[in-house]
Amino acid sequence: MPSDFVFTDEHDALRQNLRAFLEKRSDEKAVRAAMVTERGYDTEVWQQLARELGLVGLIVPEEHGGAGFGPVELLIAMEEMGRALLCAPFLGTSVFAAQTLLSCADSVTQKELLPKLASGAAIVSVAFAEPNGRWDLAGIQLRAKGTGANATLDGEKTLVLDGSSADVLLVVARSDAGLELLRVDANAPGLSRSAIPPLDLTRKLARVRFANTPAARISSGDQTAHFERVLALTCAALAAEQVGGAQKCLELATDYAKSRLQFGRPIGSYQAIKHKCAEMLVSVEMAKSAATNALFVAAANEPDFVEAAALAKAYCSEAYFHAAADNIQIHGGMGFTWEAAPHLYFKRAKASELLFGDPAHHREELAKHVGL
Amino acid sequence: MADLREMPEAELRGRVQKLLAEVHPERTDSITFRRKQFEHGLAWVHFPEGHGGLGISPRQQLTVLDEIQKHSKVVHGDPLVSTIGIGMGAPTVLTYASEAQKKYHLPRIFSGEDIWCQMFSEPSAGSDVAGLSSRAVRDGDDWVVNGQKVWTSVAHLASWGMLIVRTNPDVPKHDGLSYFIVDMKTPGVTVRPLYQITGEAEFNEVFFDNARIPHANMLGKEGQGWRVAITTLMNERVAIGGGGAKRKGAGAISQVVQLWQKRKPGALSAAQEAIMRDRVTRAWMDNELLRITNQRARAAQRSGNPGPEGSVGKLAQAEINKRLWELAIDVLGADALAFEAGFELRQSGFESRTVEGLAKYQFLRSRANSIEGGTSEIMKNILGERVLGLPGDPRVDKDVPWKDVPRS
After folding, report:
1. Interface residues from chain A to B (CB-CB < 8 Å)
2. Which of B312, B315, B394 minimises the CB distance to A269?
3. Pairing relation of β-strands B200-201 and B346-347?
4. pLDDT-above-70 percentage for chain A
5. What is the pLDDT of residues B185-207, one digit of tens each?
6. In this predicted model, what pLDDT tens digit does every residue of A118-135 receive, in sequence order?
7. CATH 1.20.140.10 fits A225-370, yes or no
8. Is B236 a known active-site residue?
9. Where in chain A is the domain with CATH 2.40.110.10?
10. Residue B348: is its pLDDT beyond 90?
11. Which CATH entry fits the domain spanning A124-222: 3.40.50.1980, 2.60.40.3710, 2.40.50.140, 2.40.110.10?
């Protein structure tokens, strides 16, 4: 039951081990090194995450070569990764693509792709958003041409997570029934991908163009309801990542406030700074409640999961952004430099706030669910 | 309190059954029943035997309540007006009073025969209560008290009160205080209602005009008043805290949602509706997250891992509640210009209200949420210093004799 919010010893061990791993392999130096590469991540770290920690296939069932974990483990993993600003295709491949395959794809495709995904061998990205700027499912307007198992695609998808390094693209398209899922491999003819120069260098995005590109249909029937839940899980996971980042911003701000002296005393002894930190603490704890609740509700298979995910994405986005902004402010001039860490969190915060719909979008969804 | 033993459940339940065989709540008035409950050691089970308890774990009080509820539709629980006496007075008396005082006061506090009030705050001493100036001067066996207390709940109903006063102005503030228990009928003690923004008086002022208090009524030694007061205040958190909605969407937010859903069609343009709906959604989110954060805090406490989630509640609740009722008024719009309940100055009753009336009342009353029991500014200082470890504010009155500290 979500009201329990109980973490087991295994959960604590998962958090400790992942944190230790990320402190070594995703420290600030590693983040800065990865973010300036085209690929955007260290393939060796990705392989370690897959093979040594078994986390790339975290939500993939054991029968498909994954760890067979659930939403609570996902909560923990995302928080730690967000805290460390990990540069990796985790959200795009391990969460979004994995869940899309599990919820929408046929079993043949699942049997083929899930093990490759879980082992770290294949990067799989979901092409969902279109240049119309919309994040609601009705905004998906790209249609595949042709009937039967083999179709062709002509058009554009954008803001595809790790789209440039993907080995396989899962394309969400509009069909007569509603929504359908198609598969396009990296070497498909007529496929061109261009990296979008991102505001947040730590997460790579791509624009994808299809020109008479062959695409395999890998779903049957209307996928709208399934995909709504996939998006909810992805947003809840992203909310957890935002909590980790916000928590880190609070720690960075507090540490700086203790060590920076002006007028003969630590700036944290001034109420303007002290109170900003206290307000950040309240915001972080509330955000933690939002993400924790969403993923415990998912774990308990309760019917109000989509509503809980909308609340989490809306709240955690704003909490993270404000924490990151306040972290810059508390760092004073240092906070404005490239050299200091705050800008890295600030950009990740704003980008993840906008990804999958901004807070107003999710509040609108929430209002519909609650009946406001 | 050192770890108290647990009594075997059957034995404890047996004792409750013995009590119920002697007096049954359905056939006995509250005071009589609770007197007996005290005698049987079932009032505060963690208190010592002979003082209303059995010297066992406080958790087992729930078993006592459960057993009473099994056999009776009437429970005779703690009267609301006795909250201060039961929650704060009794633990203080237990810790510091003489044996004779404990024997006299504790049963009367529990039964509800004596209502107690707490007289700490003064007009010049709110957040800085230790800076208080009400004065007690020794005269023979008595102390003569002059001064004024403020924000005193139930003083108009109380027979006894907890009082801290300054007995030595020449030492730093904390060292010059002494603690008394006061018979509220003492000549020179005057209680006056304190009318508030809503027109009612939930609280009182208490004036001391050469009131004589016997030295025997001092708890702790002269100059130890602050230490004794800490005991009282520590238990205040227990007496006030906790609570809040248990179910999603329940509580105050449900009232405001009701008002939103009852809004006059066409009063708002489409654009205004969207803006207002977003505010209502934000309020819904805030209230839901407060509820969940309290749940997380309880879960963490139960599992022995308390974290920051347990400390942010008071601050978060105050600010969220003020915003909630501001929103409610804005939802009422032009209708909120009328305050049907009126502002007749009166003693606070627990009046029933319509949803609209509640919103208008709470809009005013909620201003105190961020002030009473610790201002939000003080709470932020506490969070910053005790939870985040930031350095304390510089203090200009530390080590300075109280009489030399500027006051307003």
Report:
1. 3-7, 250, 254, 257-258, 265-266, 268-269, 271, 273-275, 277-279, 281-282, 285-286, 288-290, 292-293, 304, 311, 314-315, 360, 363-364, 366-367, 370-372
2. B394
3. parallel
4. 99
5. 999 999 999 999 999 999 999 99
6. 999 999 999 999 999 999
7. yes
8. yes
9. 124-222
10. no
11. 2.40.110.10
The third-level CATH classification (topology) of the domain covering A2-118 is: Butyryl-Coa Dehydrogenase, subunit A; domain 1 (1.10.540)
* Chain B: residue whose CA lies nearest to A297: B292
Residue whose C-alpha is closest to residue A199's, from A359, A30, A352, A29:
A352
pTM, rounded to two decimals? 0.92
SS3 A76: helix
Question: CA–CA separation, B46 vs B64, rounded Å?
Answer: 12
Active-site residue, from B39, B113, B202, B236: B236
In order of their start, the domains of chain B are 9-77 (no CATH), 116-239 (2.40.110.10), 242-373 (1.20.140.10)
Determine the Cα–Cα distance for residues A55 and A74; give it in Å rounded to an integer. 9
Residue A142 is encoded by which pair of tokens? 């790209």
Rg (CA), chain A: 21
On the question of pLDDT at B371 being above 80, the answer is yes
Q: Per residue in B23-58, pLDDT tens? A: 999 999 999 999 999 999 999 999 999 999 999 999
CATH 1.10.540.10 segments of chain A: 2-118
Q: Token pair of A277, please?
A: 């930190």
pLDDT at residue B242 is higher than 70: no
CA B356 to chain centre: 27
Chain A interface mutation, best of B282, B291, B388, highest count of A Cβ atoms under 10 Å: B388
How far does B299 lie from chain A, in Å, by closest CA? Answer: 6
User: What ipTM goes with this model?
Assistant: 0.92
* Chain B residue numbers touching A367 (CB-CB < 8 A): 277-278, 280-281, 284
Q: Do B278 and A363 touch (CB under 8 A)?
A: yes
Residues of chain A with CATH 1.20.140.10: 225-370
